[in-house]
TrEMBL record, chains A, B:
This is LacI family DNA-binding transcriptional regulator. The keyword Ion transport does not apply. CDD domains: HTH_LacI, PBP1_GntR. It comes from Oricola thermophila. One of its GO terms (molecular function) is DNA-binding transcription factor activity. Transmembrane segments: none annotated. Residues 9-63 form the HTH lacI-type domain.
Amino acid sequence: MKNNRNKTVTIADVAREAGVSAMTVSRALREPDRVSAKSLKQIRAVIDRLGYVPDPAAQALAAGRTNVIGVIVPSVTNNVFADVMRGLYDAAGNTRWQVQFGNSRYSPLEEESLVRTFLNQRPAGLVISGIDQSEETRKLLRESSCRIVQIMETTDRPLDMLVGFSHIEGARAATRHLIGRGYRHIGFLGARLDPRTQRRLEGFRDVLQDAGMMDENRIVTTPQPSTVTLGGLLMADLLSRAPDTDAIFCNNDDLALGALFECQRRGLSVPADMGICGFNDFEMMASAVPPITSVRTHRQEIGKRAMRMMVDALEGREPDETLVDLGFEVIARQSTNRPRNAG
Amino acid sequence: MKNNRNKTVTIADVAREAGVSAMTVSRALREPDRVSAKSLKQIRAVIDRLGYVPDPAAQALAAGRTNVIGVIVPSVTNNVFADVMRGLYDAAGNTRWQVQFGNSRYSPLEEESLVRTFLNQRPAGLVISGIDQSEETRKLLRESSCRIVQIMETTDRPLDMLVGFSHIEGARAATRHLIGRGYRHIGFLGARLDPRTQRRLEGFRDVLQDAGMMDENRIVTTPQPSTVTLGGLLMADLLSRAPDTDAIFCNNDDLALGALFECQRRGLSVPADMGICGFNDFEMMASAVPPITSVRTHRQEIGKRAMRMMVDALEGREPDETLVDLGFEVIARQSTNRPRNAG
DNA sequence: TTGTATGCGTTATCAA
DNA sequence: TTGATAACGCATACAA
């Protein structure tokens, strides 16, 4: 296999052309203040003319660190994380830091392996989803000298920094909303029971148990990834098991939309016969017919804050808050607007 | 800023412990056949015991190349590319090649800058979306010695290898389908007019002009990214401009779903009063009420094929086909099932 | 403000 | 089959 090395312009070439030493060029790039205005001008001109770009591998090797900020998400196809990634990207945009994604596919083992791979590259920082890292992963991270931001959840004991919200509280609020709207036989539709999903189920259980309305028959879950079609299937399953169910809390919006479609196929009126509440508040929820109630989460904002926090920390501006809860909001829409005389 | 260098186990450590030279360890890792069975066993034991992992930066610097396959997509939030990325990931999974994503945000300039960044890392290969690279980008790519796979479109003159399908033909087929179903006043809803979208519009125009049914008034587009909500707005816009429109081709499925919701709000029957056809065939199309006709594209498969092709080429197994058209299928559903007596 | 010497961890080359 | 030596391109430490 041949080298991919082409017409490599090195720092030495620049130095020679500019009539200075390689070190001065190196400094001109990283600490321009410590180089005379004259040299700086010369060097910059030569760099432009020659099209010099530093070799990141050489930089990493010599400096013992990189400008890479690793990001570990459990999925690249899940819209939730797509939004988070956008936020992370946006905030990293005009900085000198470079974002690199890794996909753990919801597997703690793959996550551990990704962390190893990243740490081997001596990243400046690591953004990692959730708080359920394996003990080995936590050890690796603690022993590394790189900064860490956990995202999408919240806890009292973050590894380092954290930006997220409480899934259990989100689910509690949604469930309370359904009760408040007069629903009494409330079910739960859940797909892919990752840790966050499980916490939502936990919150749902809490509230229903307190209200004396809990019925395990109304909990329908599947390990498959959530889709709209699956929402319809789960809804059908629930209705066959517990036909008197009058409302559902779906652990995400895909399922909620699928459930709505299933109700339409069965001639069930939403919200009169069936109340529906989703989670995440994707934009389509607002324009469904009827519009679907959901728990809005601030996914892109979480990405932005996390990256800003990371960059601040890396650039020596230690953030005031290193544990941020961005919360959630129950967006009440027609799909849970139960008529007084219903049921 | 301190080093991120920790307890680094180097190849020299392994060599010492195994009683061989560093070169032999290096060979044991890359060309085990050229190392004696005895040394190999020793070395592997020591590697395990010490937990040695090669430093990628040092490898890149010394070897003049990396095992990185760069992937440039125009969006990470667009479901289309999320699916492609999944395919790429899947196919790269058990190889020695590492995938790295870059997001050009639909900007040829950002794409060019990404290409430069990637090429600076001496990637083994580059997967790049579309065929509309800037002249400068094309030049950079041609001058580089790395392999290239263009994806998601097709052309006679690929830069190197290519896996995709024809957007213009997809749109033509969809439009013919609508005509075949008896619709006569067909409109087009389009968002974010990227090159692929524009080709779909072109195909739409072709067919309608040939059929003598073209009416520019029925083309409604916006530069905004497509959403379900936007589909509803565009549909409303179209109906106010051309109230006698009896069918629409949407340049993607989000818009189609939004258009369906808008019809529901207006009491328009789909498919009797309005035929709706989407593009991409996301899974939700099948479970909408009524199910929505769409043009199925093989996004994940494109990713898989592209990565397999790349890996084969990199490992010296030059692929038989380097220009693959994976086609598309019009999936006819109830949303375009126009009753005989309608209109 | 600038430069020199040295090392980062690995691989290519060539000789043994 | 193995090893010694010399890069790879840059940054650190220190000296001037």
